[in-house]
Automatic annotation (TrEMBL):
Membrane topology according to the record: Multi-pass membrane protein
Protein name, entry field: Sugar transporter, MFS-type
Organism: Corynebacterium glyciniphilum AJ 3170
This protein's record includes keyword Repeat: no
Primary localisation category: membrane
InterPro entries: MFS (IPR011701), MFS_dom (IPR020846), MFS_trans_sf (IPR036259), MFS_Vesicular_Transporter (IPR050930), Tet-R_TetA/multi-R_MdtG-like (IPR001958)
Membrane-traversing stretches: 18-40, 52-73, 85-108, 120-136, 143-165, 171-191, 211-231, 243-264, 276-295, 301-322, 334-356, 362-384
C-alpha cells in the first residue's frame, strides 16, 4: 500500500481555493435541487403520471445520492477530488438540460437520477478537498462555511424558480441551472491546481465506521438532518397558513443555519465537540417542543430559528470529526469519510419524515413533536458518551495527515 500526504504543497491547491471551489460546488448542486422542487410537479408529463410516480421521481434523487456516494469515496481516495468534481459538474449540467425538455416521464426520471449521482460525487469530493488542504485548526470553520452554502442553495432555489416560471416558463429554471453548472465547472478547472489523494489501496465508509467513535458522529449527522426533514412535511398542514408564511418560516430556519454554521465551525478547534454537539441536541429538543406547543406564529418562528441553530451545532463539528476518523482508518481514507457523512445525512433525510409522519397520524402534531424530541434526545445522549476526541487535540496540535508519507 502506498499512502500519500494530502496536505497542501506550496504549488498545490491552497485551502482558500479549495474552499471557494467546494463552496460553489455545494451551493450549485443544492441550488439546482431547490430550483427543481417547485417546478417538476407542474410539468405535464409528471402531472399525467400521478402522485405515486411523482413521489418516485423525487425519491430517485436520494437513492442515486447514496449509490454515488459509495462509489465516489473510493474514487476520491485513489485519484483525488478534482476528477469527481468535474464528473459531477458534467452530470449536473446534463441533468438540468434534460429537465428543460419537460418530458416524457422516463426522461425526467433519468434526469433526476443523474442529478442525484452528480450530487453524491460533488458532496463527497468537495468536502474531501477541504479536508485534504486544511489543518484541523482551520477545518471546522471552512467546513462550516461550506455547509452554509448548502443551506443557502436550498434557500434561494425554490423562490427563484417560482419567479422564473412565472415570467419565462417552466424550462427557464433548468436552462439557468445548466448555465450556472457550466460556470461552476470552469471555476473547478481553473482553481484546482492539483488533486490530493490519500492512498492507492482504498477503503470505504464502512472502514471509517469501524474506527472507535464513528458511530457517535454518524448519529449526530443523522439527528441534524432528521430534525429539519421531519418538520418539513407536517408543519404546513398543522399551521394551515399561506404558502408565503410557510416559506418565510423555513427561510428563517435556513438563514439562522447559514449564519450559525461558520460561527460554530470556528469554535471546533477550541471548544470540545461534546459541548457543541451536546448544545445541538439541547437545541433540537427546544426547537421541536417550541414548534409543537406554539399557539402563536411568533412562537413558531422562534422554534424554527432554533431548528437552524441546532443543525449547525451538530453538523459543523461532526463534519470536521468525520475527516479525522478517516485518517485513522486502515487504510486511511478521506473519500470514505465523506461517503459515510453523505450516507448518514441521507438516512436522516429519509428517517425524519417517516418518524414525524407516523407520529402525527397516530398521535397528533403536538404529541408527535414531543415524541420526536424524546427519541432524538435519547439517541443524542447515548452517542455523546462515545464521541471521540480528535487525534489533533490528543497530541496537542498534531495533524494526523503529517504522519502519511509518500
Amino acid at each position: 500500500m502506498t499512502v500519500h500526504d494530502p496536505s497542501p504543497s506550496p504549488r498545490g491547491t491552497s485551502s482558500t481555493r479549495a474552499l471557494i471551489v467546494a463552496s460553489i460546488a455545494l451551493f450549485t448542486d443544492n441550488l439546482v435541487v431547490g430550483l427543481a422542487v417547485p417546478v417538476l410537479p407542474l410539468l405535464p408529463s409528471v402531472v399525467d403520471a400521478g402522485p405515486t410516480w411523482t413521489g418516485v421521481l423525487f425519491a430517485s434523487y436520494a437513492v442515486a445520492v447514496v449509490v454515488s456516494a459509495l462509489v465516489a469515496g473510493r474514487f476520491v481516495d485513489r485519484y483525488g477530488p478534482k476528477t469527481p468534481l468535474l464528473i459531477g459538474m458534467v452530470g449536473l449540467a446534463a441533468a438540468t438540460l434534460l429537465f428543460a425538455t419537460g418530458g416524457p416521464y422516463w426522461l425526467l426520471l433519468l434526469a433526476r437520477t443523474a442529478q442525484g449521482m452528480s450530487g453524491g460525487m460533488s458532496w463527497v469530493a468537495a468536502l474531501s478537498l477541504i479536508a485534504a488542504t486544511t489543518t484541523f485548526e482551520k477545518r471546522g470553520q471552512q467546513m462550516g462555511i461550506a455547509i452554509s452554502m448548502i443551506t443557502l442553495g436550498v434557500l434561494i432555489g425554490p423562490p427563484l424558480a417560482g419567479v422564473m416560471v412565472e415570467h419565462f416558463g417552466t424550462a427557464s429554471p433548468f436552462l439557468f441551472a445548466a448555465a450556472v453548472a457550466l460556470i461552476d465547472g470552469v471555476l473547478r478547472i481553473i482553481l484546482i491546481k492539483d488533486s490530493p489523494r490519500v492512498a492507492d489501496d482504498t477503503s470505504g465508509p464502512f472502514a471509517v465506521l469501524r474506527v472507535p467513535g464513528s458511530v457517535s458522529i454518524v448519529v449526530a449527522i443523522v439527528i441534524g438532518a432528521a430534525v429539519m426533514a421531519g418538520v418539513e412535511p407536517v408543519l404546513p398542514v398543522h399551521l394551515n397558513a399561506s404558502a408565503l408564511t410557510i416559506g418565510l418560516l423555513f427561510g428563517l430556519a435556513a438563514l439562522t443555519g447559514v449564519i450559525a454554521n461558520p460561527i460554530v465551525g470556528s469554535l471546533v478547534a477550541s471548544v470540545s465537540s461534546r459541548i457543541l454537539i451536546g448544545l445541538g441536541i439541547v437545541a433540537v429538543v427546544a426547537s421541536l417542543l417550541t414548534v409543537g406547543v406554539s399557539t402563536e406564529l411568533w412562537q413558531t418562528a422562534i422554534g424554527m430559528g432554533l431548528l437552524g441553530v441546532s443543525a449547525a451545532l451538530l453538523h459543523a463539528p461532526a463534519t470536521t470529526l468525520i475527516s479525522d476518523q478517516g485518517f485513522q482508518a486502515q487504510p486511511p481514507t478521506l473519500g470514505g469519510s465523506f461517503s459515510l457523512y453523505t450516507l448518514a445525512y441521507a438516512v436522516g433525510l429519509a428517517g425524519g419524515p417517516l418518524l414525524t409522519g407516523f407520529a402525527v397520524e397516530h398521535a397528533g402534531f403536538t404529541t408527535a413533536m414531543v415524541i420526536a424530541a424524546v427519541i432524538l434526545a435519547t439517541l443524542g445522549a447515548v452517542s455523546l458518551r462515545r464521541l471521540p476526541v480528535p487525534t489533533t487535540v490528543q497530541s496537542k496540535g498534531h495533524d494526523p495527515r503529517r504522519g502519511h508519507r509518500r
